[in-house]
Amino acid sequence: MSEKNVRTRFAPSPTGFMHVGNLRTALYEYLIAKSLGGTFVLRIEDTDQERLVQGAVDIIYNTLEQVGLKHDEGPDVGGEFGPYVQSERKDIYLPYAEQLVREGKAYYCFCTKERLDSLHAAKDDGEFSGGYDRHCRDLPKEEVERLLSVHTPYVIRQRMPIEGSTTFDDAVYGSITIENKELEDQVLIKSDGYPTYNFANVIDDHLMQITHVVRGCEYLTSTPKYNLLYEAFGWEIPTYVHLPLIMGKNEDGSVSKLSKRHGSTGFADLIKEGYLPETIVNYIALLGWCPKENRELFTLPELVKNFSIDGISKSPAVFDYDKLTWFNGEYIRSMPEEQFVADSMPYFKEVFPEQEKNWHVLASILQPRVTKFIQIPEMIAFLKNLPDYPADFFVNKKSKTNLENSAVMLEEAIGVLENTDDWSVENLHDRLMELAQKLEVKNGTLLWPVRIAAAGMQVTPGGAMEILAILGKEESLRRLHIGLDKLKA
RNA sequence: GGCCCGGUGGUCAAGCGGUUAAGACACCGCCCUUUCACGGCGGUUUCACGAGUUCGAAUCUCGUCCGGGUCACCA
């Protein structure tokens, strides 16, 4: 068996928005190619001139770069099958369509937009099923010549077989058969001269020697049209790999194709929300694919090593933000501390713009607790401004604290801390532990009131010592006195 | 509506004729502990339904139901 070089392609249209569904398709295309030692191609499908968006191609490049999906061929890096932008390939397609016309496998259609619209309207009333009514399919040759000669606007449509059925094989869904009568005489070349997506796709995939056509399974039912095109040209049919859809959960509990109403569904949105690129890649890799080995944390190279097409599932998967968040926490916790500090610095500075103090203490309390960096400002706001809080925050059953002994603890703590100058976490720890021992109370009885007074909150990131250390001596003492006043009031 | 594809806990899922039906997220409880988080331990919750085939079905077949996709000069 001859091993052909595996080639996959990511063929987005530049819409200015990278949906996670598209990203996941790109990921699988990359993984299929790379796990088989193949080539990953980027091709821009901009045949819809009405929908062109400025700067959209850059968004595609940036996204791929951020997640590490490096393409081997593409508009920016070149390759021997270029150009890789369909608008630059415009002249390639028409001759192929004309060849089909000559061979009787396609035909000119002069139907107006209005006629087509009324056709669709009739369809909705149930009078007619299946898009185009093949009005121009058998126009006399002379009539076609005449219309052409007076420059009547036209499209070229594929002449579909009316009887029989078409069967194709999909690497994940198996063998699928569709009756030819379900197939419409689809447009190949639009009246503006550009090819349709379906046509350009087939031509380019063949010309670029794509071996695996990977796409969402919304294309499943139109695949026979592709096959008929390949057959019409006598070209080899690629391996189809259709991917299960990514769904979103609606408020009423139902699910539908993931879209904006489900929250952030664009790569850029997720990044803005505080998800790491590697988190997103790892998570979406697992939406619709399962490794042989029972594990979930994978870097991109590890995914390449473990990926195989037979692990792709058929059923749609619901995008779960909870699990995404968990993954993000895992990635954050596994970072080296320097990286955590570097990455969280912008968020630290939102609260403490003027000074760079105690970053390492902040990092040590935050790294195990943070699941998204954007949570940081809110989590540490209390360090900047003491929240107002009621005295009964001091009461905690488990720590055996009440209003009376909390006041005593605070007074004792203030006494010790006033005479402490080494304000490191370690020293504060030692001094306070000594005090608890001396007072013969459990640590919690002393530390609960200290932490409440220092933070003004019952639940805090980090413990009393870390909070005091970050606050510094002066502010710490000030807050402890405020607490004491509350208890005495 | 026609056609196509799915259906294992709330979610992601393993499973390919014989298992006590993995694992993860979420949830609950316990432990650790100066709160929370992390970490550790344990728990609740599943084979859509009905017929077959078979000694034996989550696994095979058919039907039903449910869900999704698709029916453009959009990709």
Structure in words:
The protein is mainly alpha-helical. The strands form five sheets. A three-stranded antiparallel beta sheet has the order 3-4-7. Strands 11-10-12 form a three-stranded mixed beta sheet, with no helix packed on it. A two-stranded parallel sheet has the order 1-2. α12 packs across α14, α15 crosses α16 and α15 packs antiparallel against α19. The mean pLDDT is 93. It binds one RNA strand of 75 nucleotides through α4, β6, α6, β11 and β12.
**Low-pLDDT residue intervals, each spanning 5 or more residues:** none
Count of extended strands: 12
| Helix content range | 40-55%
Q: Give the DSSP E fraction (strand runs of 2 or more residues).
A: 5-15%
**Mean pLDDT score, rounded?**
93
Element layout with pairings:
Layout: E1 7-10, H1 20-35, E2 39-42, H2 56-67, H3 90-102, E3 106-109, H4 113-124, H5 141-149, E4 155-158, E5 165-170, E6 174-179, E7 187-189, H6 197-207, E8 212-216, H7 223-233, E9 239-243, E10 246-249, E11 255-257, H8 267-272, H9 277-285, H10 300-306, E12 317-318, H11 321-333, H12 337-351, H13 359-366, H14 376-384, H15 403-418, H16 425-439, H17 443-455, H18 464-471, H19 473-488
Parallel strand pairs: 1-2, 8-9, 10-12
Antiparallel strand pairs: 3-4, 4-7, 5-6, 10-11
The chain binds one RNA strand of 75 nucleotides through helix 4, strand 6, helix 6, strand 11 and strand 12.
